[in-house]
Amino acid sequence: MAVFYGNIKAVQLLLRAGAHSDVYGLKGRSPLQILLGSSHLGVTKTLPKAGANANHIIQGFFLPLQHAARHRHAEIMAALIAAGVFVDLESSTGLAP
């Protein structure tokens, strides 16, 4: 819930306490993919630094970079690119940013 609501302090506290940044939850979504609906820049920058895989592909879902591009979130795109996402990676449905 901390990721979804963009609560950066709670996310940082959980990470310092040993929470994994790349645990897959409901429907196989990663924390970054759960974050897609809210587009919180601070959490988007924090998760890859903590080891979250920003290139994780799930059938039927966009990659985080694709979602940011689709919704014209330039700051989120820049943060993901700075974190090292593959800019030419296609989703499982063949979509690319």
Protein described:
By secondary structure, the chain is mainly α. It has a single domain, classed as Serine Threonine Protein Phosphatase 5, Tetratricopeptide repeat, CATH 1.25.40. Helix content is 40%, strand content 0%. The chain has five helices and no strands. It has helices at 8-16, 31-35, 41-49, 64-70, 74-82. The termini are far apart. The relative contact order is 0.17. Keywords: ANK repeat, Repeat. InterPro entries: Ankyrin_rpt, Ankyrin_rpt-contain_sf.
Q: What distinguishing features does this structure have?
A:
about 100 residues, mainly alpha, Serine Threonine Protein Phosphatase 5, Tetratricopeptide repeat, 5 helices, globular
Summarize the structure.
This protein has helices spanning about 10-15, 30-35, 40-50, 65-70, 75-80. The chain is an all-alpha fold and about 100 residues long.
Tell me the strand percentage band: under 5%
Q: Biggest sheet, open or closed, and with what strands and sense?
A: none
Q: Give the uncertain stretches in residue-range form.
A: none
Indicate the CATH architecture. Answer: Alpha Horseshoe
Remind me, CATH topology?
Serine Threonine Protein Phosphatase 5, Tetratricopeptide repeat
The SSE order reads HHHHH
Using only CA atoms, what is the Rg? 12 Å
Beta strand count: 0
Find the structural class using helix and strand composition. mainly alpha
SSE diagram, text form:
Layout: H1 8-16, H2 31-35, H3 41-49, H4 64-70, H5 74-82
Helix pairs in contact: 3-5, 4-5
